[in-house]
Amino acid sequence: MSIRPRRSHIFDRDRDDFYVEPEWCSRRLFEVEPFIGLIRDPCCGLDTIPRSARAARLSNFASDLIDRGYGKCRDFLTAPAPTIAGLFNVVCNPPFKLGREFVERALELGAAKVAIIFPVACLNAAHWLEALPLARIWLLTPRPSMPPGEVILRGEKPGGGQKDFCWLVFDRAHSGPRTFDWLHRDGGNA
Predict the structure, then answer these.
(1) Edge-to-edge, what's the strand order for the sheet holding 72-73?
(2) Residue 62: strand pairing partners
(3) What is the CA angle 181-64-93, rounded to 5?
């Protein structure tokens, strides 16, 4: 019996939870989810989400706790509320262990919508979702590979994601049951 070689990457955990999603994740979100107003990404990392927002002709503001060469350097969870005229939304790939804090802070600041990338395996234990205006869950397919940012900065091309991820979309204007659907990389059905 021959053993088929594994074509996925297994990475050590990044101490800052700095993981980079493929561009298609945010591009596809902006294609299917309507946003009115500014897109604010407080975890901009390597500028993936703001770049997709600009491509979708959405105005945006980027920041991150750590200066990685993109956006302003600030702590979203503790910084004073920014002065933003008009509607704004928060769209980000936060440290997974702080997903709840980022959503609650964004809603506290007055975001109309909040969308975060979240591990599907953590949904069952995320009881905090019940109290928030969760409107939609977009399951990402195929599994995106989200390596530590250092892997991308070294020029490596990751592939073969091993974990399932989704977009959680919170919408202040939503009423009714939550919905879920698949968000395919190529725009087709899953």
Answers:
(1) 72-73, 60-64, 38-41, 88-92, 113-119, 165-171, 134-141, 179-184
(2) 41
(3) 15
Q: How far is CA 174 from CA 60, 89, 110, 129, in A?
A: 23, 14, 15, 14
Q: Is 89 helix (H, G, I), strand (E, B) or coil?
A: strand
pTM: 0.86
Q: Please choose, from the candidates 68, 74, 78, 76, the residue with its C-alpha nearest in 3D space to the C-alpha of residue 48.
A: 68
The single residue listed with the structure tokens 């309507």 is: 34
Q: SS3 of 118, please? A: strand
| Degrees, nearest 5: CA angle 89-51-37 | 25
Strand, coil or helix: 6: coil
Q: What is the pLDDT along the chain (190 residues), one digit of tens a residue?
A: 556 554 444 555 555 667 778 899 999 999 999 999 999 999 999 899 999 999 999 999 999 998 988 989 999 999 887 776 779 999 999 998 999 999 999 999 999 999 999 999 999 999 999 999 999 999 999 988 776 656 666 677 766 657 899 999 999 999 999 999 999 999 865 5
* Longest distance between any two alpha carbons in the chain, whole Å: 65
Residue 65: closest CA among 82, 80, 43:
43
